[in-house]
């Protein structure tokens, strides 16, 4: 698809969001691509998790990206890196988004790619961790055009509530794994300081939106908007989108795989692992609950995170959280 058709798609999609939500006035389209540096609101405090900054003039969350407010919101559908996993036998392509069922989905697609090899290796879906994955470089691509005959294959992606994804990512990488101990640049050099991390990731997203850079890093991959992935800007209408936190996610996923020809034995194998957790799962952990409580009770943090992921909420059908006025 040439450059002009891509731009037309983005314009039409933006217009559909405006029409559907009725949130934006006419200045939105004029201001959409007009970015400016936000005020420097970053903090320089030592490692601390709970840093709450009161905000007395907050807008309602639905109003944050309306009119001039759009200038402080991260735009959707930027061109960013992609991760695809394929099963030619099932005529299926999965787009993988970090911190969104990515380890499990990679393992599922590997199982579909070569069921015999997967079973013979005595692997389970939860044990096929990313660093030691069986299908490394076998069914993995970074561009759709590199997948032969991809236009005739079915595409799907798994998405997640943006706040849940952010909270899980920070908890897993910065609090539990403490990846910054081995790699000093990770967690935006903020270690466990949540406010510092939010500020720096917001600034980094703005920087990329204004001038895409090649040096994307670990933090970018785990925290940049989901709408930037999967070449959604060009091919969104071709995707089946599954919500990880939807009530019927397991049934939807298994139904899709059954529709694409997976036999009953394969369905049972996958279903038997869907309710297990990978080492990266943060559900029910004390750390995760603390981070979530901190975000939801801090107008400053919640406002900024909404500005980071506003269009993920709209695009993937998630309700925006309310910002408590103080």
UniProtKB/TrEMBL annotation:
Record-linked Pfam families: Sulfotransfer_2
Example of a GO cellular component annotation carried by this entry: membrane
GO biological process: chondroitin sulfate proteoglycan biosynthetic process; positive regulation of response to oxidative stress
Molecular function per GO: chondroitin 4-sulfotransferase activity
Entry-linked PANTHER family: CARBOHYDRATE SULFOTRANSFERASE-RELATED, PROTEIN CBG14245-RELATED
Protein name: Carbohydrate sulfotransferase
Organism from which the protein derives: Caenorhabditis remanei
């Amino acid at each position: 698809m040439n450059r002009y058709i891509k731009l037309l798609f983005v314009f039409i999609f933006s217009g559909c969001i405006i029409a559907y939500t009725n949130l934006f006035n006419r200045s939105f389209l004029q201001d959409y691509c007009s970015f400016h540096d936000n005020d420097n609101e970053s903090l320089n405090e030592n490692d601390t998790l709970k840093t709450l900054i009161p905000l007395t003039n907050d807008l309602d969350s639905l109003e944050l990206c309306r009119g001039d407010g759009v200038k402080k919101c991260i735009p959707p559908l930027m061109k960013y890196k992609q991760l695809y996993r394929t099963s030619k036998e099932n005529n299926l392509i999965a787009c993988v988004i970090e911190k969104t069922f990515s380890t499990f989905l990679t393992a599922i697609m590997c199982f579909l790619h070569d069921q015999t090899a997967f079973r013979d290796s005595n692997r389970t879906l939860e044990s096929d961790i990313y660093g030691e994955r069986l299908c490394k470089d076998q069914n993995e691509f970074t561009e759709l055009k590199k997948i032969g005959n991809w236009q005739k294959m079915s595409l799907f992606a798994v998405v997640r509530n943006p706040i849940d994804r952010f909270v899980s990512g920070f908890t897993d990488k910065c609090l539990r794994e403490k990846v910054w101990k081995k790699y000093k640049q990770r967690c935006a050099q903020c270690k466990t300081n949540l406010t510092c991390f939010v500020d720096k990731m917001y600034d980094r997203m703005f920087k990329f939106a204004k001038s895409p850079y090649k040096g994307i890093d670990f933090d970018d991959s785990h925290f940049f908007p989901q709408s930037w992935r999967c070449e959604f800007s060009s091919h969104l209408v071709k995707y089946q989108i599954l919500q990880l936190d939807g009530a019927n996610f397991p049934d939807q996923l298994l139904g899709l795989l059954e529709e694409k020809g997976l036999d009953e034995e394969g369905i049972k194998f996958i279903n038997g692992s869907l309710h297990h957790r990978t080492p990266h799962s943060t559900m029910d952990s004390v750390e995760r609950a603390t981070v979530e409580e901190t975000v939801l009770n801090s107008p400053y943090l919640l406002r900024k995170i909404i500005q980071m992921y506003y269009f993920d909420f709209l695009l993937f059908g998630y309700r925006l959280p309310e910002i408590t006025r103080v």
